[in-house]
Amino acid sequence: MNTNDLNLFEAVAHHGSFTKAAEAMFTVQSNVTTRIKNLEEEFGAQLFTRTNRKVELTAEGEILIKYSKQLNHLLEEARRSICKTDVVKGQVKIGFLETMMTLSGPELVNELAVKFPFVDLDFRSAMRATLISDVLNYKLDAAFVPAPLDIPELEQIKIKDEQVVVVAHADCGSIDELLKRNPLKAIVFDQGCVFRARLDSWLVSKGISQYHKTVMNSIEGVVNFIESGIGFSFLPADIISTFYSNRKIKTFSLPKELGLMTTILIYRKDVPSSPALKAFISLCDKGKN
To answer: What distance in Å separates the CA atoms of residue 1 and residue 212, rounded to the nearest whole number?
Structure first.
């Protein structure tokens, strides 16, 4: 076993695929398969469960990946100590909801580029449940997700509070008028979206369980459909005021329990953070509201 074997092992765990891991590591699938088989023989345990659709860590694989990340962390610290350099470098994989990075993302990336120019960011958007799962399963180093969250394995840092509002066409006079429309139409993101979940909860509180849904998985698309009079939606107030204040749309406030959304940054407690991840966390912790 060598460090390259462990890097291949981590790549398979991250991508959930031998083929994708081989592409990411610039090698062939047969080499990855052989290396993983050698690791399994060396440890006397199966490290992955394999199906036609995906590859996942076994309980034994979960144990090994923790030690693998610890070893990589120690090696990086050794390199920095021997080279007597304080230069922080490496890649950080960060997950987020699309709406969460629209405002703060560019500023955060620019600040990181200035203070830590040798740190590369790999941003990936997904639904909340997927982001949490990917952090737990070592596919992401950290992720921005809506609170609350109570998972013992995860550390969390509060990043900011933001207001979620009802967004409707400019000719909508009031919430009551909106809810009386028949059929009631809403522009929503896919299942698992925090805004869709809040919209559903709000309608249920108003005694409405059925409504016409149009699924649109981009903020721009949602706003375009609202402006066209197709329906209404839930979106962050800051995004509307910053980017869409000149559009033919109108916002309405929500009760605090539905209108206030807290964003947190999550990462695993039981794995040493790489210097690159520590650098990223330091910027987020410093800049939180």
So the answer is: 57
Peptide bond into 272 cis (omega under 30): no
Integer CA distances (angstroms), 170 to 147, 174, 178, 252, in order: 31, 10, 11, 11
Say what the pLDDT of residue 79 is: 76
H-type alpha helices, the chain? 3-15, 18-24, 29-43, 59-83, 98-115, 128-136, 175-179, 194-205, 219-227, 237-243, 256-259, 275-287
As beta bridge partners, residue 50 has 55
| Residues 92 and 142: beta-carbon distance below 8 Å | yes
Can you give the residue ranges of every domain in the chain?
A: 1-86, 162-259
pTM here?
0.78
Q: 1-86 adopts what CATH topology?
A: Arc Repressor Mutant, subunit A (1.10.10)
Q: Where are the alpha helices (DSSP H) in 160-246?
A: 175-179, 194-205, 219-227, 237-243
* CATH fold match for the domains 1-86 and 162-259: no
Which of the 8 DSSP states describes residue 152?
A: T
Q: Which residues of the chain carry a pLDDT beneath 50?
A: 289
* Secondary-structure percent of the chain, ordered helix, strand, coil, rounded to 5: 45, 25, 30
pLDDT of residue 288: 52
Q: How far apart are the first and last CA of the chain?
A: 46
Rounded distance, CA 203 to CA 206, Å?
Answer: 5
Q: What is the pLDDT of residue 88?
A: 85
- Cα three-residue angle 36-140-57, rounded to 5 degrees: 35
**How far apart are the C-alpha atoms of 286 and 289, rounded to whole Å?**
9
pLDDT at 286: 67
**Which of 13, 12, 36 has the alpha carbon at shortest distance from 23?**
12
- How is domain 162-259 classified at the architecture level of CATH? 3-Layer(aba) Sandwich (3.40)
229 Rama sector, left if φ>0, alpha if ψ -120 to 50, beta otherwise: left
